[in-house]
């Protein structure tokens, strides 16, 4: 899928990548005006003497916006643009504000291109632990950055949406609230990642609003969202559960103690919102499953295979 990235790069950078790096290992390309080019592949960094110019940045921006940068203003003010294939192009430059809100970003001098990847069946170890007699349990995935939580969440979404008869799991109607366009990686509203055949996506929608919108408009059985953390998020989550909708979500953290330590989670914990927690790390590589926690029993579940 990284071929879409090559199409937006100048020839000299494209040739560097094609010469040095297998496309299936490409992870990230970081460009800064008058600074060395850095490319990350197979979890390793490589520094190049080539230094992008302002013209290089303009070329890339024109390519990713199909020569109509104004059409992407809503994305630009969030600091990124999603391109075909679901790849995310992060940008930095001069921020223009209006009424204490970001209006746009101009004079773009830093670009970070992150390759979108999906790993089919990476959630197969977890799925049996978030099921009870064929029904989904309210689950939170706890993970430090860059440990694969969004990749696993996406695959969980795919499995739940499609169903898995060996697990006695019928396909469910799923609504994804994809505030940062990372779960489904939509391009022009169409998911570029496989999130399942019964899944609807509210792309670039704030979680606190999207959860309620989805319940009212799409009648989901499951709502999936990434990185909850505000009081508004908590209010929407409780409203969803009161409507009979199940929830799977994530937070940044290291273990379940992070849920109890943060005041913002106090209400959801007091209301026993979650049935399971899946704790990830990169101790044995990205996506290591440290343990699954059963909130009702107040203990870790045994028999988990890390990976």
Walkthrough of the structure:
- Pfam families: Spore_III_AA.
- It comes from Clostridium senegalense.
- Keywords: ATP-binding, Nucleotide-binding.
- The protein is α/β, with parallel strands linked by helices and about 300 residues long.
- Helix content is about 25%, strand content about 30%.
- The chain has helices spanning about 5, 10-20, 55-65, 75, 150-160, 205-220, 230-240, 255-260, 265-270, and strands at about 25-30, 35-40, 45-50, 80, 90-100, 100-115, 130, 135, 140-145, 175-180, 185, 190, 200-205, 220-225, 245-250, 275-280, 290-295, 300.
- The protein has an eight-stranded mixed sheet, sandwiched between helices. Strands 3-2-1-6-5-4 form a six-stranded antiparallel sheet.
- It starts with a helix and ends in a 6-residue tail after the last strand.
- The model has no long low-confidence stretch (mean pLDDT about 90).
Which terms would index this structure?
307 residues; alpha/beta; Beta-Lactamase; Rossmann fold; eight-stranded mixed sheet; six-stranded antiparallel sheet; 25% helix; globular; AAA+_ATPase; nucleotide-binding; ATP-binding; Spore_III_AA_AAA+_ATPase
Q: How many alpha or pi helices? A: 9
Total beta strand runs: 18
Q: According to CATH, what is the topology of the largest domain?
A: Rossmann fold
Oligomer: single chain
Mean residue pLDDT: 92
In the sheet with the most strands, the strands line up as 13-10-14-15-9-16-17-18
């Amino acid at each position: 899928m990284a071929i879409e990235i090559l199409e937006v790069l100048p020839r000299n950078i494209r040739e560097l990548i094609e010469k040095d790096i297998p496309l299936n290992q490409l992870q990230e390309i970081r460009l800064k005006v008058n600074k060395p080019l850095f490319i990350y592949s197979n979890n390793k960094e490589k520094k190049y003497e080539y230094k992008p110019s302002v013209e290089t940045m303009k070329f890339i921006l024109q390519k990713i916006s199909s020569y109509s940068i104004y059409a992407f203003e809503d994305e630009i003010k969030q600091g990124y643009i999603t391109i075909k294939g679901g790849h995310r192009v992060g940008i930095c430059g001069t921020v223009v504000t209006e009424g204490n809100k970001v209006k746009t970003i101009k004079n773009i001098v830093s670009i970070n291109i992150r390759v979108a990847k999906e790993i089919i069946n990476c959630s197969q170890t977890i799925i049996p632990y978030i099921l009870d007699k064929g029904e989904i349990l309210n689950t939170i995935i706890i993970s430090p950055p860059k440990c694969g939580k969004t990749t696993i969440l996406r695959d969980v979404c795919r499995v739940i949406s499609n169903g898995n008869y060996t697990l006695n799991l019928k396909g469910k109607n799923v609504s994804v609230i994809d505030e940062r366009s990372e779960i489904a990686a939509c391009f022009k509203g169409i998911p570029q990642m496989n999130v399942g055949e019964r899944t609807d996506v509210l792309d670039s929608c704030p979680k606190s609003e999207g959860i309620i919108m989805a319940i009212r408009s799409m009648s989901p059985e499951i709502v999936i969202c990434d990185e909850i953390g505000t009081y508004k998020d908590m209010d929407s989550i409780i409203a969803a559960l009161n409507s009979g909708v199940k929830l799977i979500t994530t937070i940044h953290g290291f273990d379940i103690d992070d849920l109890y330590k943060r005041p913002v989670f106090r209400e959801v914990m007091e209301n026993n919102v979650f049935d399971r927690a899946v704790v990830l790390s990169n101790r044995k590589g990205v996506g290591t499953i440290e343990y699954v926690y059963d909130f009702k029993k107040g203990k870790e579940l045994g028999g988990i295979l890390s990976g």
